[in-house]
Amino acid sequence: MAVPKRRTSRSKQGKRRSHLHATPIQVTYCPECNEPMLPHRVCPQCGKYRDKDYAPPEKSEKSQT
């Protein structure tokens, strides 16, 4: 069974784990309504993407009684 001959140092361990950090969510702003949106997706507020009109997402309104 393979066993490490020497203990890995903290710097070597840190260099190995340097790519394991969490990446923040990239947020862009819609050029039409200036609402935050995910890049390369249709704006959830106005329904536009690259100057083209797409159907805005339908809001499910429950009966208000």
SSE layout and pairings?
Blueprint: H1 10-16, E1 28-29, E2 36-37, E3 48-49, E4 52-53
Antiparallel strand pairs: 1-2, 3-4
Commentary on this structure:
- This protein is α+β, with helices and mostly antiparallel strands.
- It contains one helix and four strands; from the N terminus they run H-E-E-E-E.
- The protein has one helix at about 10-15, and strands at about 30, 35, 50, 50-55.
- Strands 1-2 form a two-stranded antiparallel sheet. The chain has a two-stranded antiparallel ribbon with strand order 3-4.
- Strand 1 and strand 2 (about 35) form a beta hairpin.
- The longest helix is centred in the first third of the chain and has 7 residues, at about 10-15.
- The N and C termini lie far apart (about 70 Å).
- The model has no long low-confidence stretch (mean pLDDT about 85).
Structure described in brief:
With about 60 residues, the protein is of the alpha+beta class. The protein has one helix spanning about 10-15; strands at about 30, 35, 50, 50-55.
What attributes characterize this protein structure?
11% helix; single chain; 65 residues; alpha+beta
